[in-house]
Amino acid sequence: MPRILPRILPSTLLALALLLASACGEEPDGRLSVAEVTERLQTGNDLFNLGAADLGTKVYSCIARALVSSDLTDKGLEALVDGDQKYVATDAEATVLTELSTRQIEACKAAPSG
pTM for the complete prediction? Predict the structure, then answer.
């Protein structure tokens, strides 16, 4: 038994290190924050072309909160705010995007800016 331990321990440590490295490498930053989405929306590159409308920081923040808290996948959210027209949304994401564009984004635009 004492001879097995020196062989198992390095293998186990290597496996653990690889597992941790892969877990960290898949989604290094995770979901975009409200601040990041707000900033990206203001550039005008998003798929809704909201930046071109010059809506003001409060409206962009409201929209960003709705987007970040939505059921969009992390990749879908990033594709939306980066204007990635090659991204293919799932049916579920398409439903979420319709809801966002017809209700929540319009509600943010209509909210008093004061």
Answer: 0.69
Please state, in angstroms and as integers, the Cα–Cα distance from residue 81 to each residue in 4, 11, 22, 24, 45, following that order: 53, 43, 26, 23, 7
Domain count, the chain: 1
Are 41 and 64 a contacting pair, CB within 8 Å?
A: yes
Q: How far apart are the first and last CA of the chain?
A: 73
With respect to residue 7, please indicate whether it lies within any of the assigned structural domains.
Answer: no
What CA–CA distance (Å, rounded) separates 31 from 78?
8
- In this structure, which amino acid lies at residue 21? A
Range of the domain at 72: 34-110
Residue 43: both structure tokens together: 């550039």
8 in a structural domain:
no
CA 3 to chain centre: 49
Residue-wise pLDDT for 55-99, tens only, equals 899 999 999 999 999 999 999 999 999 999 999 999 999 999 888
d(CA 112, CA 114): 6
Residue 25 lies in a domain: no
